[in-house]
Design brief:
Keywords: ATP-binding, DNA-binding, Nucleotide-binding, Transcription, Transcription regulation. It is a single chain. About 40% of the residues lie in helices and about 15% in strands. The protein is of the alpha/beta class. It folds into four domains: about 110 residues, Beta-Lactamase; about 160 residues, Rossmann fold; about 80 residues, Helicase, Ruva Protein, domain 3 (Orthogonal Bundle), CATH 1.10.8.60; about 45 residues, Orthogonal Bundle (Arc Repressor Mutant, subunit A), CATH 1.10.10. Strand 1 and strand 2 form a beta hairpin. About 5% of the residues have low confidence. Bound molecules: adenosine-5'-triphosphate.
């Protein structure tokens, strides 16, 4: 054998690229070991057979077209990316011509580009993510009403004044507090959040103002209290309307004196914290009914900012829905689905008693359960289909769990009505903690609906 031939043979045998040579009649004249592995064929059986024998019938026309282009000199080489054995290959077809330009055949080289392709896909994903930056606490504000509230927040954030945010549950009050804090000179200090409705009544004072070791049974260690934890920062008193009256008096004193005394402690510690309070209750009404101290109300209501319910600002519904779809799709590593025209009109027509939180949960559910790239009406919770179901009424007995839940909901409603919506008394009558009551009201979306 010609030594040059031997040398080429050795090189081609060792190559990791698959090499196939097709003669002028499109028959396989040569196939190297790498091509045997890639195509899962043996050279011994395939030499002399038409190239089509390596391909599924549906690709014949495309392969013929490609080879014809090369034969006719319309192209010197062509690329095709194929998938084989779960990997991607870039196939380069190059026409081989004699000295006179006569077509002798085609050289087909297959390169494994799986890693490259994976990387470029990942790169594309990352570019998309970068092009659409998603802040964790992005605040969507399309409606004039929410833009006005945001403008107010931006104006008062740099001041140290107390802000009272009002609005139904789930309207985004917490996001507004974050915005106030992050735009204030206290932004590098802590933002401490206290949910006044979730605090057990007997622990309200020690939670807020701290306690010394051994101040009461269970006080094994000292606790600085939320006020001191928020030193130099912002203290967010969420659901402030749910503070028991005794705690309201103590809070008022702290706000007046600007100092706290820990439960069981003697000395006073000066407090340097900005107060932002929020409530979904009608505090003026609570003041009239003697449930909330008027003097505390005036102390907190220095700068009132109202966040309207979602049903009063329909311009926000679809932008919020899309924002949540992107967020959850990314979190669940799924492609971002879009809303069908019908789903959009249902969302726009719905009155959202649970506000943005309810919309957010619905979008999370749709992304989690959806298997397509379009969210249809069927992918939305049942209540979005029409009017909100009345919570009091016949128990729809489907399974035991839902029957028990419906029963629990009715008990809660009855107890709340009997106690005029007063959480502490309701919790006591039901034999559960205020925290447990608060959680149940959230779960059933009842915190808004009742007095
Ligand atoms: N404008 C908005 N843009 C983006 N997300 C929002 C917006 N408004 C509310 N959300 C989201 O909706 C959810 C509910 O909002 P948030 O917890 O701030 O409501 P809230 O008014 O504080 O409710 P509650 O009174 O029950 O504490 C949150 O996950 C929040 O991130």
């Amino acid at each position: 054998m010609n030594p040059t031939n031997e040398l080429f043979q050795a090189i081609v045998n060792e190559m990791t690229e698959g090499v196939i040579f097709l003669d002028a009649e499109d028959r396989i004249a040569y196939l190297n070991p790498a091509a045997e592995r890639i195509r899962r064929v043996s050279a011994a059986k395939f030499i002399g057979r038409p190239i089509h024998d390596l391909h599924p019938a549906r690709t014949y026309a495309a392969v013929d077209e490609l080879l014809n282009r090369l034969k006719e000199g319309r192209a010197a080489s062509r690329h095709r990316v194929i998938q084989a054995q779960g990997r991607y290959f870039d196939n380069t077809y190059t026409a081989v011509r004699g000295a006179a330009g006569d077509y002798r055949g085609t050289l087909l080289v297959s390169r494994d580009i799986t890693e490259k392709k994976d990387l470029s896909e990942e790169n594309l994903q990352l570019k998309k993510i970068l092009a659409r930056p998603f802040e964790r606490s992005a605040l969507i504000a399309e409606s004039p009403a929410i833009k006005a509230a945001l403008a107010m927040v931006e104006a008062v954030a740099p001041l140290d004044s107390t802000v009272l945010l009002t609005g139904e549950s789930g309207t985004g009050k917490e996001l507004f507090v974050e915005r106030i804090h992050s735009l204030s000179p206290r932004r590098s200090g802590p933002l401490i959040n206290v949910n006044c409705a979730a605090l057990p009544e007997h622990l309200v004072e020690s939670e807020l103002f701290g306690h010394v070791k051994g101040a009461f049974t269970g006080a094994v260690g000292a606790h600085p209290g939320r006020f001191l934890q928020a030193q130099g920062g912002t203290l967010f008193l969420d659901e402030v309307g749910d503070l028991p009256l005794a705690a309201q008096a103590k809070l008022l004193r702290v706000l007046q004196e600007r100092s706290v005394q820990a439960v069981g402690g003697k000395g006073e510690t000066p407090v340097d914290t900005r107060i932002v309070a929020a409530t979904n209750r009608d505090l003026e009404e609570d003041v009239r009914r003697g449930r909330f101290r008027a003097d505390l109300y005036f102390r907190l209501n220095v700068i009132p900012i109202h966040i309207p319910p979602l049903r009063r600002r329909p311009e926000d519904i679809l932008p919020l829905a899309e924002h949540f779809l992107i967020h959850f799709a990314r979190r669940m590593s799924k492609p971002t689905p879009r809303l069908s025209a019908e789903a959009r009109s249902h969302l726009l027509a719905y009155d959202f008693p649970g506000n943005v939180r309810q919309l957010k949960h619905a979008m999370e559910r749709a992304v989690a359960l959806g298997d397509g790239d379009v969210i249809e009406i069927a992918d939305l919770p049942r209540e979005f289909g029409g009017t909100v179901p009345e919570p009091v009424g016949e128990v729809e007995v489907g399974d035991l769990k839902s029957a028990l839940l419906a029963c629990e909901e009715r008990c809660l409603i009855a107890a709340l009505r009997r106690h005029g919506g007063r959480r502490t008394e309701t919790a006591r009558a039901l034999g559960i903690s205020r925290k447990a009551l608060w959680e149940k009201l959230q779960r059933f979306g009842l915190s808004e609906k009742l007095p």
